[in-house]
């Protein structure tokens, strides 16, 4: 069944969305891309006379109730996005009565799924090294099935539209699909679009292909970096990773973020890039600050010669030129992770230079895909969202899909 061919009249539909939106300290949404992303699927169901049960996670409450991560905070925003009132179920495993009472056109938002450890299905309070761990894991898998079954019991149909968590085999993203037959489960529009955008990058690579990987750490991105080395012509590594590379090559990085235990990994990346003929672009200079704050004193210095007490917080002017050169004539572009601490207004320059070069290349016909919460926040902060080809709502899911891994959230519906 596909979302396009399905008619939802008089159907109760449970939809897994990714409403894991960033909130400020007052609980106000700072970027609603993910809510907007789910609207086409949710509206189609409502417009055809279906009733909606929406479920999502938010943050990492680790299986415990935590008001900081309550989806109750976004009920109004969801209501505004859909143009109808939204009811709230404060306990996602005890929402049977509220779900049963829903009429056509009505919407029920369930509380954060991850308040239940069953959602992620990992045993809590027990170390992997504990001899009892395997039994605890088995027991948790069984209760995960029960939890998924409870969620499934609320509805006639299941729609998976949470690309951001499609790389996880959780109760609501994959296990629940076992309780619906082929005619009663499907991917939503957002999932279809995301999967298509990844296919676009992987199946028909127009060259040159430039990937830009930024963010804070090498360790979380090494899998995709190694994978990209087999695919791209230019690989820009920026953000906090810069300093692990600089240190690995014998540089002095002051207080910059640096993963001391990943120096060999960095050297391995440099070696592989050479062997594969990939143009690896690393920062040569940076804007360093004398503290981790927007208003610190700054100076431009070589990325591998940062004075003691200073830390690299953004790409420097020479580096920006190198980035722009590797991006502006590209025909396929992938960007994940900012080039500096873009949350501080004084350190957005490197990321802005990247965004502008991507916009220029896109205007000349390149296909550009931006993914990962932070790069999306960046492009939105610069008001340039309409100048790139596709903005993905996925971070980890996008990268795993590009690595060629099958996403459990897709497999659960399609295989
Ligand atoms: P990630 O979650 O690994 O994609 O990293 C995103 C974060 O990296 C953002 O919050 C940035 O502020 C941060 N980041 C980027 N460049 C730097 C840097 N030079 N030093 C510290 N953090 C950085």
Can you describe this structure?
With 415 residues, this protein is of the alpha/beta class. It has 2 domains: 12-190, Phosphoglycerate kinase, N-terminal domain (Rossmann fold, 3-Layer(aba) Sandwich); 197-402, 3-Layer(aba) Sandwich (Rossmann fold). Helices cover 35% and strands 15% of the residues. It has 14 helices and 15 strands. The chain has helices spanning 33-47, 75-82, 96-100, 117-120, 133-152, 189-203, 222-229, 241-248, 263-276, 317-327, 349-363, 373-381, 396-402, 408-414; strands spanning 12-16, 51-55, 87-89, 107-110, 157-160, 185-187, 209-213, 234-237, 279-282, 285-289, 298-302, 311-315, 332-336, 367-370, 390-391. The strands form 3 sheets. The chain has a 6-stranded parallel beta sheet with strand order 3-4-2-1-5-6, sandwiched between helices. Strands 9-8-7-13-14-15 form a 6-stranded parallel beta sheet, with helices on both faces. A 3-stranded antiparallel beta sheet has the order 11-10-12. Helix 7 (222-229) packs parallel to helix 9. The longest helix is centred in the middle third of the chain and has 20 residues, at 133-152. The protein is globular and about 65 Å long. Residues 215-217, 220, 239-240, 257, 312-313, 337-338, 340-343, 372, 374 line the site of adenosine monophosphate.
């Amino acid at each position: 069944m596909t979302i396009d061919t399905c008619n939802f009249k008089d159907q109760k539909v449970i939809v897994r969305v990714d409403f894991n939106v960033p909130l400020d300290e007052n609980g106000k949404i700072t970027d609603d891309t993910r809510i907007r992303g789910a609207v086409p699927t949710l509206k189609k169901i409502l417009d055809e006379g279906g009733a909606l049960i929406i479920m999502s996670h938010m943050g990492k409450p680790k299986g415990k109730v935590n008001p900081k991560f309550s989806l109750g905070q976004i009920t109004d925003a969801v209501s505004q996005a859909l143009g109808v009132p939204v009811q709230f179920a404060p306990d996602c495993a005890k929402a049977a009565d509220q779900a049963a009472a829903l009429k056509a056109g009505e919407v029920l938002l369930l509380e954060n799924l991850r308040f239940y450890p069953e959602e992620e299905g990992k045993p809590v309070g027990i170390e992997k090294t504990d001899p009892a761990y395997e039994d605890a894991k088995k027991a948790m898998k069984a209760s995960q099935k029960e939890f998924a079954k409870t969620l499934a019991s609320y509805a006639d149909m299941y729609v998976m539209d949470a690309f951001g968590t499609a790389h996880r085999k959780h109760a609501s993203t994959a296990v629940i699909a076992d309780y619906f037959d082929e005619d009663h489960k499907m991917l939503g529009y957002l999932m279809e679009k995301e999967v298509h955008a990844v296919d676009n990058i992987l199946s028909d690579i127009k060259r040159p292909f430039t990937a830009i990987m930024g963010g804070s750490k090498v360790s979380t991105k090494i899998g995709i970096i190694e994978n990209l080395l087999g695919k791209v012509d230019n690989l820009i590594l920026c953000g906090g990773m810069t300093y692990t590379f600089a240190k690995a090559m014998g540089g002095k990085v002051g207080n910059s973020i640096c993963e001391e235990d990943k120096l060999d990994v960095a050297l391995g990346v440099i070696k592989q890039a050479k062997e594969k003929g990939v143009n690896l672009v690393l920062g040569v200079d940076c804007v360093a600050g004398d503290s981790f704050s927007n208003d610190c004193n700054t100076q431009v210095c070589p990325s591998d010669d940062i004075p003691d007490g200073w830390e690299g917080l953004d790409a420097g002017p020479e580096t920006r030129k190198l980035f722009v050169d590797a991006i502006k004539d590209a025909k396929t572009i992938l960007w994940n992770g900012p080039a500096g601490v873009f949350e501080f207004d004084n350190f957005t320059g490197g990321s802005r230079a990247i965004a502008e070069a991507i916009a220029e290349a896109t205007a000349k016909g390149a296909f550009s895909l931006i993914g990962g919460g932070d790069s999306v926040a960046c492009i939105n902060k610069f008001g340039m969202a309409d100048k790139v080809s596709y903005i993905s709502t996925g971070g980890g899911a996008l990268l795993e899909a590009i690595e060629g891994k099958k996403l459990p959230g897709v497999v659960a519906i399609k295989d």
